[in-house]
Design goal:
Vesicle_trsprt_v-SNARE_N, mainly alpha, single chain
Length: 222
Amino acid sequence: MSEGSELFNSYEQEYVVLRKSLTKILESKIPTLRGEEKKVASRAAERELEEADEIVEQMEIELHNLPQALRARLQSKLRGYKAEMSQLKKTLKNVVSNSGERDELLGDHTVLDLDSAGMDQRSRLLAGTDRLQDSSRRLQDSHRLALETESLGVGILGDLRSQREQIQHTRDTLFEADSSIDRATRTLKSMTRRMMTNKLISAAIVLVLILIICFIIYMKFF
């Protein structure tokens, strides 16, 4: 049995059981019966064939919900089951046609409702319906989780965008501060040069004045 989802594997197991039962009825049981017993066995085969057909349809539905890689591996298996169903239907048709009782079987609804195998069929179909509903709930939960994850992702992207803008603003502020520091440094250096120049000029003026005073004193007394 190929690897697949739990629901697909469950359908597959039910189908295998029904197929074995149908094969036994069509090939071994019905040919050995006569009269009413043959009619009952044929009706049971029809019911199981309908149930098996329903299970194959449910497997096909579940197949569409599986990942692409897994679906590709199971499609050949499903095609094989459909081919088996077609062959079983042909075999049943031949059995019913040969017995000359097909019309009676198709119209005998009261016996089908009272037959215990019919109750078993209903139980299996109900169980299959429950599994389909469970699968639908799981899909809805997965969809809701995906929406919540998407919403969370949008919120995270918004926070990252806001943080990026803050970092960009901080970097621009640092660039402006660095530029202001450079201007202040150049201004201080210029002021320092002016101060040194002023000191030199002042010293030169003082020296000249001292020389002039000394010259005047010399001329006065000598």
